[in-house]
Amino acid sequence: MEENTTQRPLDALNHARGKKVIVELKNHKQLVGSLKAFDIHINTVLDDAEERVDGEVKRKLGTIFIRGDAIVLISAE
Amino acid sequence: MEENTTQRPLDALNHARGKKVIVELKNHKQLVGSLKAFDIHINTVLDDAEERVDGEVKRKLGTIFIRGDAIVLISAE
Amino acid sequence: MEENTTQRPLDALNHARGKKVIVELKNHKQLVGSLKAFDIHINTVLDDAEERVDGEVKRKLGTIFIRGDAIVLISAE
Amino acid sequence: MEENTTQRPLDALNHARGKKVIVELKNHKQLVGSLKAFDIHINTVLDDAEERVDGEVKRKLGTIFIRGDAIVLISAE
Amino acid sequence: MEENTTQRPLDALNHARGKKVIVELKNHKQLVGSLKAFDIHINTVLDDAEERVDGEVKRKLGTIFIRGDAIVLISAE
Amino acid sequence: MEENTTQRPLDALNHARGKKVIVELKNHKQLVGSLKAFDIHINTVLDDAEERVDGEVKRKLGTIFIRGDAIVLISAE
Amino acid sequence: MEENTTQRPLDALNHARGKKVIVELKNHKQLVGSLKAFDIHINTVLDDAEERVDGEVKRKLGTIFIRGDAIVLISAE
Lengths: 77, 77, 77, 77, 77, 77, 77
Prior knowledge:
1 helix; mainly beta; homoheptamer; SH3 type barrels
């Protein structure tokens, strides 16, 4: 349907590398930061991460490692 | 029973590629978007995604990556 | 004990292919539809699916893909 | 300690094949029926199944497929 | 530190075979019975099992199969 | 950074073998006992185990087998 | 985008070895300590660990082993 389509989910995630993303967790927290790294388990590292509640910064966290199974979704900010 | 039957679940999902789908999550959220990609874990990428609550758009999310184990079901819109 | 016994659970599920089934989910929802496909993870596709609450149709969903680990049981309607 | 001991759990389950069993689920429901089939994941098929609440039949379900990970225990009726 | 130490957890469980044990479940129930069999998933079979609540027998269950992932711990009675 | 560093988590756990440890469970219970054995799933056996609530001994349990996935953390007493 | 980028999440975690980290658990507890060891399951060992509630030290725990699947995220203090 499209030329040059991303076929696999991890490819799409790879396009977000180095960009600002929002990570939503199963515990309902939102983490915002620059997507540094991820693996096939979706273990994810964010740089300059912040925890947000209702759009407001609650805590600055620096570089964080998130265990993949705690994640619901990752979107571009 | 039917000719030309889709035999495997992921084949059915493949037919929805590029089409608008509703993804229901274990955390009770609904995400609507164009099905861009998925894998055997049902890790899923939607384009032009929106979060909906009671049929109303709550947030526009753009392209999102959803971790498969957070998903309950995927239906055509 | 019986002649011609189905020995494996997925064989029993296979006998329901093309028939109307009720799928009960861990989130307590009931989905009713024609069993189109399933795999060893019990990822399941229903055609003409409906969500029911207390026996009443709540939503018509068309063809749906259900992630296996969200399922508690599948019965014939 | 005993002669002719069943050594493995699935052997014990196999002895119940064709007999009436009670399956207790993680969602606190009780299902009663004739044990038709099971596999190493404890995916289980019951014939003539009923859902019981406090010892009373709530629903007759016929032949049902239960996903193994929804099960807590299986006992003889 | 000790001579003749049991090195592996399943060895310790094996020493309890044929003895009366208490199995505590994730759903907070306690099952008491004679440990008949277990496997590497901790799927467990008890003979002469009883369900206990606050130390009192609530139900007699006979021989039961318990799915391993429902279990928190197993102790000698 | 340190000489003679323990590099792997299970090595650290191995240093606690034969010593008194506190095991905290996902169900919020605390078990205290002598660490007898563990495996790669963190299935763990304690000798002379006690259940504690708010630092007080609630029950004496003797030798217990704990299923690894019920465990949050293990610390030295 | 950056030279000398850490590509894999466990590499980032490795950079924190020997440094003070905050580990947030699925049970909402926070553990602070020096990151001694971790493995591919994110089983993690902290030295000089403390449990904190709302930024205050609640308990001193010494060296602790944390089961990986109990962890949500790890950040630098």
